[in-house]
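Teaching soon. Invent one.


***
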Amino acid sequence: MGAKVESPEAPTTPSQLLNYLPTYRVLVCLRCRYAIQPGAIARHLKEIHYLPRATRRTFVAWASEFELAQPQDVVLPDESQFPVPFLSIQEGLACRFERCGYLCATSKRMKQHWRCTHQIPTSDESTLSTPVPLQTFFRGNALRYFTNPSLLVVSSASPSEYSVDEVSHDGRSSTTGTTPATSTTYLESRLLPLDQCSSVLVTNQGLLDHYRHSTYKSLSNSPETDRAFGEVVLGLTSRFDFLRQGVMACAALHLASIDPANRTYYVFQSLRHQDQAIPAFRQAILHVDRDNCEAVLAFAFFLVICSLNSDTEDPRLFLSDDPDQHLHWINILRNGCSMLCPFWDELTAGPLAPFAALWEDDLGVGGPPADTPEDPLLGALLAMVVAENPARELAEEHDAYRAAADQLAAAGAFLQRRGPAASVWDALNAWPMRVAPAYLTLLKQDRPGALLLLAYYAILLRPTRGEWFLAGRVERLIDEIARRLEGTSCSAQLWELFLAIRREYFPEEALRCQ
């Protein structure tokens, strides 16, 4: 084996990966979208981003120049400061009981809070909780959710009694209320006519303006893609309506992610624009030429975002109960990109060259086959999957598993080589765009081996969880894999291996399911 090849796009200066927020005295990882605890910077750079020792020393020395607050000393933002830049935003819930500032990410946690704190055995979450956007500076044992204070319930109590500053590290309020607030809240605004919700964007131009001023920045991962997602794409929308519809669909989803009170409305708007875009895009990929090839390439990115995010009530990514819709977005994406092959040289030399580079054909990695991979977990997984059904008539199925595992090994090596520069586009290009139809067929049939390999891919997706259009999706994918494995003839050995993966790489999900 030769020397390890470092990605030319890997960060060479600390500011490419880290950003100091003086208002809060925290150091935010721009790729992970959360703050790093003062004593964990070196470990984060090593274990999460695989930076070499010399680079880590430089970054740690740079970070030591800043005054960093301990998690318990960080002052949470007020109304004018939310959301905090560079931190991920996820959908959450706020308890509506008086003098209770409890925040959490799931209805299960909220119901547990009601039972333990307010002595309510069961309740309808829609009446006793309010949907709110959540952020947290830190993860793990320093997790502490906060939201915009103006979105919290206003009751007869003093405003200070609702301050999110009262929320402890586990999200529990230090003050317990006894009755739910009955005054009009942000939740009720969802039921008002649109003309009474002045903050709702109801026009196409409003969505395009939001994309121009906000959304495109959240999709880019470099100065080069900044221009592509912004100026270049917006210029193409005036000529190609399917791309214009895709941009508006994406902007609506972005608004849904940062405005939970109007989330249903924005998701509906996104679906409406997607319904208008997809038929025209299908026609475009049947007649790709020099005139529309850039628009087709650009739309591929919006197709991915909308497909991964639009079905927000059932966000299972690569799994579906609808046989007609199974992985339709991957098939459309593959077909669209294959039609671009005759024009690839022009695309790589044009204004959308940064987009073309993200779908590179050769990952530039090699290595041992999956039967003897450098990753012992993948090797053990494949060996167990093949041993599960050693019958000779299943040789083709075993070949499909081996090929998918080989591609997973290459994807893991590619993403590790990319390091902090790796994006969600790299993660999608590295495996879903390459895996053979034979594996996808097995996955569609809920074969335990296919589901286990998908669980391994979920591990590779972990660094992308900070993206707004993937918030909570990877964890829910793991939950869905667990549900399907329980419904199959999965052996005890395979089930234990899956549980080990969940405990090791998704500990919060493992605890939640106990």
